[in-house]
Amino acid sequence: MSPPAGATAADPEKLDVYVGAMEGSDQALNDALAGLPDVLRGWNAGAATFGGRIDVDKVLAVDGAVDELSYLDLWVGRVADAFRDADRICSSDGCPAVLLASELQIDAAGPPSLAQAVAEGQYGHLFVVERDGSDGRTRVVRLTVDTLPEGMSELEWQLVVEEMGLTGADGPLHTVVHGWGSTSDGATGAGLATADLYDQQGVEGATVLVVDWDAGDGAGGLGTPWDFDDAEESAQATGDALAPLFTAIARSNPDADVNVTAHSLGNHVASRALSQMEDPSSRFSVGYLMVQPAIPAGAATDDTEHYGALLGRRVRDLTITINTGDDALFWYEARPFAPEALGDEAADGPGLAALVEWRAAAGLDTQVVDHNSDAGGGHLGLSPDGGQGLVRSLTQEQIDQLGGSSPQAEVRRWIYQTYSGPDSQVADVIIDHPAVEAYFARQQEAGVAPTVADVEHIIRTEVFPPSTGPTPMPTPGPPPSPPTGTTTTTTTMPPPVPAPSPGPAPTPVPTPTG
Amino acid sequence: MGWRDGCAPRPSVAEPAEPVDFDFSGADLVGQRLQALLDHVTSGLGARAAAQVHLTDWSGGHRREYDDHRHAQEGILSGADVGVEIARLRAAWDEAAAAQVRANRDAGLSHSFAGAHSVPSN
Fold first, then answer.
1. Total structural domains in chain B?
2. Do B54 and A14 touch (CB under 8 A)?
3. Which of A168, A217, A468, A498 ranks highest by number of CB atoms within 10 Å?
4. A341: which strand partners?
């Protein structure tokens, strides 16, 4: 029997059975397509004498149709939900299995086409395009997870990130994750500044993904504003919830060039997502810059379930900035029973040493950058601009490493090895100086390696010009020898850490987190 | 079913012959990936057809949208005919394999001929 005009009918339980029946074959078909276009392009580039070239456009068309059909099959579940949610009056015996609803009520399911759903903003609550890249600049997308995404299957994540162009198929993907108390504008600004560095270095097709999580009000926005414990809980929950995002990227493009920069508490988000994701090919890896990480110093070795990615090949290059004089992390540790924070542990502290040792045993590079910077009260920010020369240089190095090596990194290491010492901030002053930043920018833009000689000249003429008087400047030592091991540790002697005052734990004061 | 079932076996390169300009390993990888894609496309179409039984109670405009979109996209899958691409790769494989066999044979003959000349005559 047909429903009356303007009405529609279905048994939502059966629709759900349909969705369950299709999920496995849809996922398998998507897996079969993962990375295939690149494989075919590589083959075609070499196939000449005997032919056998494959029509890549044909396979891309198949890929698009598979995505649409996979979404269509999931959409049937949305229709089932819309039927359940529709208001209706049933007899005292309950509602029948086949429910009637108006077409308008079922419109809540959205369009059946993936492309149309994304274009119409069906996922606008999750993804906001901040810079679309139409002007040739690096694209910036913000992922808003103030409310944790629920009910999205791994397949749905995969379909959406593919449709949003977040799989690194067209160029590198750089994920930036803010720390405690950051605003959406601040996080977006950091993403835009990161994107500008990709443009500066002439990298085409890159996308920066800003993870905008709830860092002030607790998970789901239900906590107390500016409650650090709530924010930490939120960071952990967000990381757990975002594991499927990274799984989706790894499934879709296991060889994607992916960088991650996370600041302070944002390292809970990034580390936990990377540790709990699935990587069917075991090929997915990221370059990871941890800026003043506000996670327990021993997290990676003590809680491998949630932080174990830091020890393995999933994080192929790891850089950690630390500062024992970090004011913000001082308060992190001042909480009752709080652990030592990774970001203000001494370079030879047990947590950091264990992390570096485990990675070295696996043949993995770890770079520990021990600084005394004044920026942010010693708690560097996320954004590679605003006078944060060190973060800028480390971000540029991340981008360089996608191409293999970073000539700038060698010069930066020379600065820290040459101009550091007990309580010294000279190296930080140099790296943050506008003239040095401008020099690095020119070299990056021109694709020319910066040199120690040039930087020495800038230091003598612009950073510490003779007219400034008798500024004490350490005598430069010999240029450092190339790294001999898998671990490069740039160490300065830290200033003394202020002892916590007795009495009740002070309430942390929000600091700019970039 | 393997993508090159019925194709010529992968030939070895017999010294002193040169290898032909064909990446047999690369072709094998591409062939396996395409065959896997074709198999999954086929099984996916079959699974969706079989699962239609769960949709018999569903009627109305959204059901028509489902049917229309399904038919359009499945038409793309059928029209793409990945099997044609596999067939082209098989042909290239067979041609390259035959060329290698010829190269092996020609080099062997040439080598034997040169060797005969190197033997001092009485």
1. 1
2. yes
3. A168
4. A296
Using DSSP's 3-state secondary structure scheme, residue A141 falls into: strand
Q: Which residues of B touch A61 (CB under 8 A)?
A: 76, 80
Mutate to test the interface with A, among B73, B77, B86, B93 (most CBs of A within 10 A): B73
pLDDT band of A495, cuts 50, 70, 90: very low
Q: How far is CA A105 from CA A9, A120, A485, in A?
A: 11, 18, 64
* CATH superfamily to which A125-466+484-490 belongs: Alpha/Beta hydrolase fold, catalytic domain (3.40.50.1820)
Quote the percentage of chain A above a pLDDT of 70: 88
pTM of the model: 0.83
Residue B117 resides in a domain: no
In tens, the pLDDT along A83-95 reads 999 877 777 888 8
For residue A76, the chain B residues in CB contact (below 8 A) are: 55, 66
What is d(CA A340, CA A342) in angstroms, rounded to the nearest whole number? Answer: 6
CB A254 within 8 A of CB A284: yes
Q: What is the mean pLDDT of residues A197-218?
A: 87
Cβ of A442 under 8 Å from any chain B Cβ? no
pLDDT tens digit sequence for A41-65: 999 998 778 989 999 999 999 999 9
Domain ranges in chain A are 7-118, 125-466+484-490
Partner B contacted by A56 (CB < 8 A): no
Per the CB < 8 A criterion, the answer to whether A37 and B79 are in contact is no
Residue B96 above 90 pLDDT? yes
Strand order across the beta sheet in which A127-131 lies = A127-131, A139-145, A207-213, A173-177, A258-263, A286-291, A315-322, A365-370, A487-490
**Range of the structural domain that residue B106 is part of:** 24-112
Whether A8 has its CB under 8 Å from any CB of chain B: the answer is yes
